[in-house]
Amino acid sequence: FSIQGSGFHCLMKGINYLTDELKRGEFKSAIVAEIHDSCVMEVAYDELEVINKLAQECLVDRVEEDYPWMDMPLIIDGDVYIRNWGELDGNVNPKTGEGVKEIMELIESR
User: Which of 5-9, 17-21, 33-37, 84-88 has the lowest mean pLDDT?
Assistant: First the structure.
């Protein structure tokens, strides 16, 4: 239970950081749910790139700074659904930005 509990606390701490940044930046994007070990967001098209970077900063970088004793690396990824949740359109890597360009091109083509 200690691993699951610690993971939950890391997620909640990161979500608190992310919520503060979303309010401070007056973004249109929002966190809509926390399900088990996932943070579900609705992200405005024009904010995808910045929210991707902000998620890495808040959910990983800041939490790792707060808990330097952790041996397990925190890793996040993002699935992107443009039309609906039943059809995965791609995914992004918040740490490297990989996938963002492809998703943006897909959205623009529709």
Answer: 84-88
pTM: 0.81
DSSP characters over 15-68: HHHHHHHHHHTT-S-EEEEEETTEEEEE--GGGHHHHHHHHHIIIIIHHHHH-T
Instruction: Give residue for tokens 């966190």.
Output: 31
C-alpha dihedral, 52 to 86 to 36 to 103, nearest 10°: -10
The span from the CA of 31 to the CA of 46, in Å, is 16
Give the CA count within 13 Å in the CB-facing half-sphere of 4.
Answer: 2
